[in-house]
Amino acid sequence: MTIRAYIIILVMLGAGTAVADDAYQSPEEFLHEVFDDATPVPGVIWLKGDLKDTASDILGHPYPGLRIRYWGEGGRTAWILEEIGKVKPITVGLVVTDDGLETIRVLAFRESRGWEVRYPFFTDQFTGVGLTENHELDQPIDGISGATLSVRALKKLARLALYLHSRIRLTDDTTP
Amino acid sequence: MTRHPKNKSRAKLLRSLYIWHRYIGLSAALFVVILSVSGLALNHTESLGMDSTHVQSESLLNWYGIHAPDDLSSYSADSVFYTGINELVFRNSRLLHEVRAPLVGSIAYQGFIVIASRDHLTLLGQDGQLIENIGSAGGVPAGMKAIGTTADGAIAIKAAHGYYLTDESFLEWTETDTVEATWSTKADTPPALARALQAAYRGNGLPLERVVLDLHSGRILGNAGVLLVDAATILFLLLALSGIWLWGKRRASARAHRHKLEHQK
What we know:
Strand content of chain B: 15-25%
Shape of chain A: globular
Order of helices and strands of chain A: HEHEHEEEEHH
Order of helices and strands of chain B: HHEEEEEEEEEEEEEEHHH
Largest sheet of chain A: 6 strands, antiparallel
Shape of chain B: rod-shaped
Distance between the termini of chain B: 20 Å
Number of helices of chain A: 5
Helix content of chain B: 40-55%
Strand order of the largest sheet of chain B: 4-3-2-1-14
Mean pLDDT of chain A: 85
Number of helices of chain B: 5
Distance between the termini of chain A: 58 Å
Radius of gyration of chain B: 33 Å
Largest sheet of chain B: 5 strands, antiparallel
Oligomer: heterodimer
């Protein structure tokens, strides 16, 4: 087998992995489930000023965009957010109420390791978790051996969704 | 005094094994260095940034057969070219990590640049700064085929299941039977940009981690390299076994010599 044949196989394997992109639930299905098949029209929150700075502090890097879309109704907001675990983004659906995090669910996981974060034994720990004044989670979350980066990514997204929810509840003025 | 023939042949065997041990050690030395250094590096892939560093060596890229297509076509908006090459999308010759291939069009619209790929719309500022990536959850129709603008200033999308209209907020989408729009179309990529794009594509095609991993496993030389590393592994085993055997023999002989001396006393 020549090196070229090997590369072709590698590319095919890569393509296979990309196609096999572990999508557990589509964002639309998640929103339909959250809002009982009546998904509201989304809103957007612009990241500017202190909101942008705090989002960067929470993520440990600037958010890759200037605005974030959310779906809100009756004091609940739903978010579809992405954060890179090691090299590829993990897509997460989150629902937040004024009492804390209602749901966190991994919708798509593209990394080769750390997929255990999608299981309820891990995500159930987030139910009812809120945010401290320092924008940290107010309850400890037990990690998973071998999934440190994925656990960290989910904790960051939980903090970000809780923070953005609190900002939306403070003001309705989210247009630029 | 003459040596007993059995002892003589044992000494000969021992000397021969010493020589073999030395030659095996010398042959394995290069592999030990390569496997140790590459193994150490692979253990620290992330901290060394090997997964995000890409090989720029022309000869290595040629060796791996990484070539950009010769014929490139791009979409343009506001005098900037957006080009998809396989899985990568470029703004002029800069890689846009946030845009997903394949591209179906790009338009300049109310201060934004809107790039349409099959299932996503990406909004960029005039300077290329990402504003938002909108997917199916944001109402973007699946299987987009073209993007354009209507005479009354709406964004038109031609998708797998029909035509859709939206406005600058991208919050609500209206399905329609047909639409009159000016569609974004592909244009020839200017030759100078095409050359820069081909270089940029090749420069983003081969992570350093891949090369070090292939060096470690021998795959960098194809199947022959794997067999070579297999052979080196067998040499390591022989080295370990002959080393242990020689050490045991030497120890036994030293013990026998000590006993002999004690008896003579």
